[in-house]
Amino acid sequence: MKNIVVAGTGTDVGKTVVSAILLQMFEADYWKPVSCGSNEDRDSFKVKQLVNIPNFCCHPEAYHFSSPKSPHHAAAIESIEPLSSKLCLPNSNRQIIIESAGGVLVPLNNKELLTDIFCNWDCNWVLVSRNQLGSINHTLLSYEALVQRSVNILGIIFNGSQNDYTEKFITDYTGLSILGRVDEESNINSEIIMRYSEKWKNQNCWRERI
Q1: How far apart are CA 88 and CA 121, in angstroms?
Q2: Fewer CB within 10 Å, N side or C side of the chain?
Q3: For the whole model, what pTM was predicted?
Q4: C-beta neighbour count of 54 within 10 angstroms
């Protein structure tokens, strides 16, 4: 089973929650190659609390920067030049869910985008979009950027309150299937993650594409 890259249309659209659901679904390993922000807010820490998987492995980041900025900016603050050669897929006997940082076109350094590095790996991709004003534009631009790079997009996952007008336009325009939805949840915990994983697991769209 191929590894899956979870890409988002921007920052804070729900990539970590979607990653946790997919981890639980497939009993996979997790890897966020590059993260930015305080130690307390590291997505790898959040994921560990959200999933219940035997012998689960959360692979360490290639880079972690303490400033909540784009990787190339956060790295510059720490006088570090991130190298794409440091981003090597971890060895694992399981499928790996790979969470990208920020949106699709995020720079690792002053010359390279994270997505262009990830494209060197033979992975399937999932696009996460949050239903809010501007999401059609952000989602279509993200979709076209991925299509230009010839990656295999399994489909799209919408986060937030359902908006039929937005979702229908996006899916009609792109031809992408809806792989799942994450509703507005007051408290995301392991029980919520398990509930979504069981729900998505029974959807034909996943069985047809994995």
Answers
A1: 9
A2: N
A3: 0.94
A4: 5
Structure-token pair, residue 41: 């807010």
Tens of pLDDT along 104-150? 999 999 999 999 999 999 999 999 999 988 899 999 999 999 999 99
Angle between helices 15-26 and 43-50 (to 10 degrees): 40
Catalytic, 48? Answer: no
Instruction: Out of 32, 46, 69, 168, pick the active-site residue.
Output: 32
CA-based radius of gyration for the chain: 16
- Alpha carbon separation from 74 to 65, 88, 101 (Å, rounded): 6, 21, 12
Question: First vs last Cα of the chain: how many Å apart?
Answer: 7
Non-local CB neighbours of 136 within 8 Å, separated by 6+ positions: 166, 169, 170
Q: Render pLDDT for 57-99 as a digit per residue (tens, 0 to 9).
A: 999 999 999 999 999 999 999 999 999 999 999 999 999 999 9
